[in-house]
Write a structure and sequence with these properties.
about 240 residues; mainly alpha; Multidrug efflux transporter AcrB transmembrane fold; 2 domains; 6 helices; about 65% helix; transmembrane helix; transmembrane
Length: about 240
């Protein structure tokens, strides 16, 4: 049995229960919480365990489809459809779907920024193939950092690595290309120019990459686990981009 205090979790925190005998017309709560629980049958005691597990997988897929196609479109637009109603919703499946949907929409912004960087790299290096290769190396650092990060899965914040590594990695490319152009005034042979470029550009980029990665690694001191994971992941991505 539930006590009377359990019902207060369905109202706003500032709601004060009226005295007994108070007219309903005098009560005006600002919010009302509702909890929905779903029970799905996956078998009975006589059904084999393997069949029950198969039914669980199938019913879970149906439930996820129900949340994505039926529930989410309604609750996400409810605040727009009704003038005096604001709907806040939360749940494992619906939260995951909303995050995925948001990330896919934000991916369009990432494509736009990557396209701009590619065009600027092309303008700066005067070589389209070199620009594509540089971007490929930059984005290779992200899966390398993911593999090196000692966690089973990363957080949603790790999606920002696409934007951050595009800028940080491009800076390394600009430094190396500038030193390569300057090497023609210092050295004559191709091998000597390469050695001079790696020595001077590598030393400059090593300093900037180390300071940037250390600033991300500083998040390891945070009490929040997602922030620690993000700091470790981004620090490894920065150093991977420099090494690659």
């Amino acid at each position: 049995q539930s006590s009377s205090r359990d019902f207060f979790r369905y109202f706003s925190k500032d709601f004060v229960a009226p005295d007994i005998g108070t007219s309903v017309s005098e009560i005006s709560p600002s919010a009302l919480r509702t909890s929905f629980a779903f029970a799905i049958s996956v078998g009975s005691a006589t059904v084999p365990l393997a069949q029950v597990r198969a039914n669980m997988v199938a019913e879970k897929a149906n439930y996820v489809e129900f949340i994505e196609t039926e529930v989410y479109p309604i609750v996400s637009k409810a605040s727009e459809d009704y003038e005096y109603v604001r709907v806040f919703y939360q749940g494992d499946e619906i939260d995951g779907y909303e995050i995925t949907n948001t990330l896919m929409n934000d991916l369009m912004y990432a494509i736009g920024s990557i396209t701009f960087v590619l065009l600027y790299l092309w303008f700066h290096t005067q070589n389209l193939m070199l620009s594509f290769c540089c971007l490929g190396i930059i984005f290779t650092s992200i899966p390398v950092g993911y593999v090196l990060t000692p966690v089973s899965k990363t957080t949603v914040a790790s999606f920002m690595s696409i934007f951050l590594m595009t800028g940080i990695g491009s800076d390394v490319v600009f430094v190396f290309t500038d030193f390569w152009e300057r090497s023609i005034d210092v050295e004559e042979t191709l091998d000597a120019r390469m050695a001079w470029m790696f020595l001077h550009a590598g030393r400059s980029c090593l300093a900037t990459s180390l300071t940037t990665s250390v600033s991300f690694f500083a998040n390891l001191a945070s009490a929040l686990q997602p922030l620690r994971e993000f700091g470790m992941f981004m620090g490894l991505c920065v150093m991977s981009a420099f090494i690659l």
